[in-house]
Amino acid sequence: MIHVDALAKEFSDMKRGPVYALDHVSFDVRPGEIFGLLGPNGAGKTTCLRILSTVLKPTHGRALVAGYDVVRHPEQVRAHIGFMSNNTGIYDRMTGWEMVEYYGRLYGIPEEQLQSRLTEIFQTLQMNDFRDVLGSKMSTGMKQKVSIARTIVHDPPVLIFDEPTSGLDVLVARAVLETIASLKAKGKCIIFSTHIMREVEKLCDRVAIIHRGRILAMGTVEELTRAHGQPDIEEVFFKLIRDLETELAEI
Ligand SMILES: Nc1ncnc2c1ncn2[C@@H]1O[C@H](COP(=O)(O)OP(=O)(O)OP(=O)(O)O)[C@@H](O)[C@H]1O
Ligand SMILES: [Mg+2]
Prior knowledge:
- 40% of the residues lie in helices and 26% in strands.
- It is α/β, with parallel strands linked by helices.
- The protein has a single domain (2-250), classed as 3-Layer(aba) Sandwich (Rossmann fold), CATH 3.40.50.300.
- The strands form 2 sheets. Strands 6-7-8-3-9-10 form a 6-stranded mixed β-sheet, with helices on both faces. A 4-stranded antiparallel β-sheet has the order 2-1-4-5, covered by helices on one side.
- The longest helix is centred in the last third of the chain and has 18 residues, at 233-250.
- The radius of gyration is 19 Å and the shape is globular.
- Magnesium ion binds next to helix 1.
């Protein structure tokens, strides 16, 4: 469903010179699978997800989403994905219900299906107690839920979430993770970024540890802990990053 081949993005930064935000990464994500991009700040996670959602063009390599090339067929790609970016983009003057409804119409969901779809989503995400609250009056968690609802309203086969639980309390974060798990059960292909180890352990079928735009390791949590002789994913993560930093310091 997602096929990424030697994907790279080079930015020319005024101060730092050329920056390889993404340095030739390759991976695949299948339907019914949750794939995690785990990496520290500045690792390249958002860059990767923005390329997959056609917001940004790669400088090298190739990415296919639902069989469509992100550069050559961006409209087709957009029709098959739901993308939740870091920035929730909530409109102050609309209620949650109105916003999700608005996106449903943008995606061309027939009016008779739209209301039942909204009812279902508001139920699943437990959004009914604030369905008529305006964007300007919403808490972070409410905004995050509306943002997720908007991402999934058209029932796309591929879902891309950039740090979906950032800034949420444990209760809302849990509801979000449960929603993601239920989307997997429906056979969706899901990729999400995080720097929270527990989320990876609980949710991901496979994970790629990413740092300085490179994938340092990829596999199931069990494969990674075994291959690197560490007790958990956090230790694997520290070891890989330490090793890379040591290697770079020696050059
Ligand atoms: N528009 C841009 N121009 C120049 N450099 C950029 C641009 N966007 C991102 N970068 C750089 O690319 C690198 C990767 O950034 P990216 O936002 O993908 O990281 P991230 O893994 O999402 O980090 P975080 O966890 O902080 O969200 C960083 O060094 C960042 O400064
Ligand atoms: Mg990011």
